[in-house]
Amino acid sequence: MSFCSFTKEFNKYTSTDIDNKFITSYLPEASGNAVKVYLYGLLACKDADESLTLGKFSENLKLDEDEVKDCFKFWEEWGLLNVISEDPFLVKYLPVSSDKPKKINVEKYGEFNKALQALIPERMITTSEYTAYFNLMEDFSLPPEAMLMIVKYCVDIKGEAIGFRYILKVASDFCQRGLNTVAKIEKELSDYTLRKGEFADIVAAVSPNKKPEVEDLNLYKKWTEDYSFSPDAVLFTAKKTKVKSMAKLDKELSSLYSAKKISVEEIGNYYSEKNKTTETARKIARALSLYVEIIDPVVENYVTPWMNMGYDEETLIFIANFCFRKNRRTLEDMNELVSGLYKNGLITIMSIAEYIKSATADDGFIKTLLAEAGLSRKPTDWDRRNLKAWRGWNFSDEMIEEAAKISAGKSNPMSYVNAVLSGWKAQNIFTPDKITVYSKSAGGKMANSHNYSKEQLDDLIDNIEDIEF
């Protein structure tokens, strides 16, 4: 008993909370006396008056003791309480469920209760445990015979003193996978028995004293059917990694599957290279000036995928140095650059170097164009895209430079180069000797160009259904 408590007088002036779910979902199913018993019992739970007997309880409600017992058993059928003892008569209230109320006919499970207790003779099964089994069977339409098969399997694995939470966990797993009939469960357990030998060595490699369980079979099916690992590959991985639980082995095999290492040979090579890959990851982190406390995520999420693309350590270190020098100093920045290089077929250090060399030469030419146009700034990505577009229009560097000269003195020279080259393209002017139609004094407009009025331009738009540029 707690050293602090309320007086009876204090409790007279407090309130008893009633869950709205009880009022809306349970109350309409009950008689007036059943509601009286439930509410008065709720008050008794709160008061915790040890002197309140069943006789006194019944007298206060002006009901017979048997009638009070029947009311409590009614609420037990609805899952709101457990009658934990008949003599003395004791009741435990349960939380009001948020699920749709479901009345359980306890009597129909009489034979099940006897068979269940026979399977677990080491301990007495409590009322709350029976209720948990009843609720699961009702929720998943699981026949008692099927539930007993699951219990027997669990007892065979864990022994006769098995806890009921493990049984519920296994049964719930079966039901959630659609195994809720005698035939389906019989087939699953038969499959488990037949294949137990296949994965028993795997279980033994992970936990020598552990017996194979259905959960282990589920993982084994995942590895061999969904991931396509052979039994030998799974066993090899278990022995190679020396993991101490099936969950850790699952994590290891999932990583191998992501890395596309499936056969024994591939897995062996993977682990042989793993240390090298880890060291490469550390070098990349140092090149980016990053502090990485745990290196495994870097290996798994970045370095291994990059190497699967075909990048070697030398190339990745070069890219990391490039990122650092260009102030792109995160792994995500580097990953973005690697993805761009891969998209353009740039994988070896030589191909990347040649690409950068070409880009450097282009920047030199852009600097010349900027100077011709009267600008003194560094080349930008916009300039580089423009140059690529102009060359795509089949203009030589000489013609592009001529356009830059014409644009000198304009308010926006490089945009003007676009206009000049566009005009030349329309007039089919692609060599310097044909640049005779431009007049600087006329503002750079084509001498033979056509001037369109607003009405003519509107007609052009209206007279065509659609056009792709």
Explain how this protein is built.
Helices cover about 65% and strands about 0% of the residues. It has 22 helices and 2 strands. It has helices at about 10, 20-25, 30-45, 55-60, 65-75, 110-120, 125-140, 145-160, 165-175, 180-205, 215-225, 230-240, 245-260, 265-285, 295-310, 315-325, 330-345, 350-370, 380-390, 395-405, 415-425, 455-460; strands at about 80-85, 90-95. A two-stranded antiparallel sheet has the order 1-2. A hairpin with a 2-residue loop joins strand 1 and strand 2.
Q: What is the topology?
A:
Elements: H1 8-12, H2 20-26, H3 32-47, H4 54-61, H5 65-77, E1 81-86, E2 89-93, H6 110-119, H7 127-140, H8 144-158, H9 164-176, H10 182-206, H11 214-226, H12 231-241, H13 246-258, H14 264-287, H15 296-309, H16 313-325, H17 331-343, H18 349-372, H19 381-392, H20 397-407, H21 413-426, H22 454-462
Antiparallel strand pairs: 1-2
Helix pairs in contact: 3-5, 6-8, 7-9, 8-9, 8-10, 10-11, 10-12, 12-14, 14-15, 14-16, 15-17, 18-20, 20-21
